[in-house]
Amino acid sequence: MRRVLVIGDGAREHAIAWALERSGAVVGALASHVNPGLEGVARRTGGRLFLGKVTDPGLAVKAAEEFSPELVIVGPEEPLFSGVADALRERGFRVIGASKRLALIEMRKDFARSLQWKYRIPGRLIYRVFKSAEEAREYSKYLGAVAIKPVRQAGGKGVRVLHGDVRYLDLDDAYRRSVEDVLKHVLQYGDADGAVLVEEAVWGVEFTIQALSDGETLFFFPPVQDNPHAYEFGVGPECGGMGSISPLPFLEPEEVEESRRAVEASVRALQSETGERYVGVVSGQMMLTARGPVIIEYYSRLGDPEAVNALYLYEGDAYELFSLAADGKLHKAEQRFKSEFTIVKAVAPVGYPLKRDLARGRRVHVDWNAVRKAGCLVFFASVEERGGAYVTLGSRALEILAAGASPREAYERVERCVSAVDGDGVFYRRDIGSPEYMLAMAAAAEKARRVYKWRRARGLGGRVLVWEPGAGVTEYSL
Amino acid sequence: MSAGLLAVYSASGAAELGPFVHYGLKAMLNRGERAEAYVLTSSGVREVNVRLAREARVSARGTAAVGCVSPDGGCCAESPGGVRCAVAGSGTYVELRRDGVVIARRGTPLWHLALGAHGFDFIVVATESAAIEILGGSLRRSLLPGETVEISEMYVRSSREDTSGPLCALELIYTSRPDSRIDGVEVAAARERAARLLASKITFDVDVVTGIPETGAYYAASLAAALGKPYVPAFVVTERGRSALLDETLERVAAAQLKAGIIESAVRDRRVLLVDDSLISGMTIKLASQLLRHKAGALEVYAAIAAPPLRRRCPHGLKMPPESHMLFNAVGPADAMHVLEVDGLVYLTPGELEAALGETGLQVCTLCMRRER
Question: B135 and A169: CB-CB below 8 Å?
C-alpha cells in the first residue's frame, strides 16, 4: 500500500498531499496546526494528522513509527536544518528530504558560495564573508552595488540590497542598521557565527528552478517565478511569497537549460564535498542578468508557493515520482507536464508580514461554489477551521491556483477565484500574472538577454579585478 | 514648470529618512530650487529644514516623509489629514497623513508620478522616476491618470477614477530629467524623436553644433548626429538653474546671468548651430548668440528650438510668464531672428511636436504653444 507521511503544515505541504491523494496514497501529516487542507486529505485517504513541532526529529520519528509510511516527505527547510531527515533515515525510513549536512546549501549562504567557487559552478557571484558591519562596509565600497545577506538562511529576512549609489547617497546609517539587523537575526538561531555575506548585486528577472534529486539524476519541474514583495506592484517588505507563475514564456529554452545545468553541477559538487547522496528537493533561485543566468541562492526544498505550480503541472503519478527519487531510479520517471499556464496567488491577513499579532485571528470565508465554478484549486496555509470559517494564525492564509491555456486566461480565472475569498482584513496582489506584469517581465528579460548574448559572443567580461586600496587586487574569473 | 513631488515610506518602522529626502529632492532640482519637506515622527508631523545647496543634511527620523521642489516654494501645505505637497491645481499630490498613511494621487494625465521600491525597506513615489533610481531604488511603474495609491504599514492599495487626456508636452520636452521615464517612455527617447524631426527641417550650412547648457545639450548632440556635424560642448556652466518658466523678473535675472564660460577654440571661425529646448522671451538664446560671436568669434549663429515658441499661459494652471513676455506674441516669425540676433531660426510647429512625441505612443497637450482660438 502507498502510505506517505508529509512533514510540514503550509500550502506547499497541502499541495504535496493533494498530489499524493491523486495517486491513490494514504496520506498522513505532521503539522504544528490543524491545516484544513492536510486534515481533509488525511481524512479522505484514511491517513492521520499528527500535531507537533515539525522541527523536532524525535517527534517526526515517533509519528513515522506510529504511521508506518513507505515514504516520508519533508516539506519545509527548518526540519531539514534540524536533522529531521537524518533521524528518519537512521530508523530505516525512506525519506525525500536533504540531510542536515546537504541542507547547508540552503542554510549557509557562505557555504553555498564557497562551493560554487571551489567547483567552478557557472552563474556564481563575487562575495566575501565578514564578522562585523565595519569590515563589510569597507569591502562593499570596492565591490560596487552589493547585496548584504545573513550567512544563515532566515526565512528570507535580513537581506538588504544596497546599490552602488550608496556611496553618493552615503546612507551610512541605513547601511549600519542593515548589517546589524542581519547579525542580530543570525544570532537568534544559535547555529551560525554572527556573520554577514556581501556579494555583487545584480539586476534582472528572477525565477526558480526546482528539481527532485535521487543522488544520481535530477528531475526538473518547469521554471517558476515567485514574488517576495508583500504588497501590490512589487513594493514593501519581503515575505514568504505572494504569488507565482509557471511556466515562464519570457525565458528562452536555452536559458532554462543553462540554469538546470548549473543546479545539477551544484548538486554534484555538494555530493563530492560531503560524500553523501542528495535525496530530496533542490532548487536554484536564479536571475537572468546581463551575465546570463546566475544563482542567487539555493533551496533544499520546493518553494512555497512555487511547489503548488510545479505539482499541479506534473501530469504523471506523484507517488511514483517521489518513490523513484527515494530509490535512486529517477531516470525512469515520466517527464510529462500539462501544457497549461498556472498562476498561484497567496491571500494573507492584513498585518502580515510585519505585524503578526494583528495578522492573527482574522476570519476568512471561501465561496466554494464560485471557486469550483471558476475551476480553481485552494491550498491552505496558516489557518485553522473554527465554526465554519477559517481563522488566520498570522502567516499567509491560503494559496489559490488557476490554470489556463494562456497567461491571460489563467489571470482572469485566478482573479475571479480570489474575489470568492473574503474576510475581516485579508489582502493579495492583483498585479501578479497580469498582462502588464507579463509584458514588464518580457521586457526586462530581453534587456538582460541582449547584453549577455552580445558579450558572450565576443568573449567579454570574464575577468573581474576587485581592487581594495591598501589591500591589493583580487582576481575573479567568472 | 510643475513641482517635483516626493514621498518616502519606510516599510520596516522608523528610520533615518534624511538622506532620502535630501537626495530625492536634489534629484529634482531641475523643477525648482525651493525645497520643503515633512516627516512623520512618533510625536507627529514635523517640518524638515531642507537645504539642498548644502552638503550638510538634516536628520529626518520617522516612518514616512513627503516633500517637493518648486521655483517659488509653497508646494506643500497643511491638509485636513496632515500635509499635502501638490502640483498646484491639478489634483496630483503626495500626502503624509498623521495616521501614518501616505497617499499618492495622479489627478490628471498632464502631470506624472512614479512608484518604486528601494529593496524591501522603502517605498518611494516621485514625479521624476530618476529620483527613485538615484535613491538606489527601482521604478515599478507610473501611476495611471486618476489613480490613487495608498501606502501603509500593512498594505498598498490602489484605486482609480477613469480619466483620460494628454500629457503636458513641456514635461517631455523640457521639464523632466532625460533619464526619467513617464508612462513607460524614457524622456530622452521622446526628445530624440523631436530632435530628428527638427534636424530634417534644418537647411542652414553649419560647421559645428552646440547646445544651451544643460537644457539644450541633449538635443544638440542628437541634432549633430542627425546632421553629421560635430557636437561641441562649447559652454561651461558655473551655476546650474533653469530660467525659462520662472516669472518675468527671475527670468531676466537668470538669462542675464547665464553664467556660462565659452570655449573659444570650439567655435571660432565656424558657423554654429545653437540648440535649446524651448523659447519664451528668447533672452537666453540672444545672450548665447552674442557670446558666441562677440566673445568667441563664431562666424554665423543659427538657432534650432525643439519646442514651438510659447504663445499663451497654460490653461491648466501651470505657472508661466505673462503672455506679453512671450516673444512670439510681440513679433512675427520673420522678425524673431533679428531679436534673437541669429542668422536663422528653426523650430517645430505644435502639430509637428505632437506627431514626433506621438511616435512614442504618448499623446501630448500643446495648448500653450498655440495662439488662443
Answer: yes
CATH topology of domain A126-200: Dna Ligase; domain 1 (3.30.1490)
ipTM, 2 dp? 0.80
Give residue B248's pLDDT. 46
Check if CATH label 3.40.50.300 holds for domain A205-435: no
**Number of C-alpha atoms within 13 angstroms, CB side, residue A283?**
27
The verdict on B226 touching A (C-beta cutoff 8 Å) is no
Q: Is B156's CB within 8 Å of A170's CB?
A: no
A271 — pLDDT class (breaks 50, 70, 90): very high
Which residues in A112-234 belong to E strands, given as ranges? 127-130, 146-150, 160-162, 196-200, 205-214, 218-220, 225-226, 229-231
- Structural domain spans, chain A: 3-100, 126-200, 205-435
Q: Could you give the domains of chain B?
A: 4-165 (3.60.20.10), 186-369 (3.40.50.2020)
pLDDT for A387-429, tens place per residue? 889 999 999 999 999 999 999 999 999 999 999 999 889 999 9
Residues of chain B with pLDDT under 50: 243-257
The CATH code of domain A3-100 reads 3.40.50.20
Q: Is A173 on the interface with B (CB under 8 A)?
A: yes
B322, exposed or middle or buried, with CB in 10 Å at 0-12, 13-18, 19+?
exposed
**pLDDT tens digits along A199-226:** 888 889 999 999 999 999 999 999 999 9
**Is the minimum CB–CB distance between A157 and chain B shorter than 8 Å?**
no
* Chain A nearest-CA residue for B18: A171
pLDDT at A193 over 70: no
Q: For A330-370, how does the pLDDT look when each residue is reduced to its tens digit (9 = 90+)?
A: 999 999 999 999 999 999 999 999 899 999 999 999 999 99
Residue B224: C-alpha distances to residues B54, B237, B289 (Å)? 36, 20, 18
Residue B255, pLDDT score: 46
Q: Is the pLDDT of residue A306 over 80?
A: yes
Return the higher-pLDDT residue of A129 and A29: A29
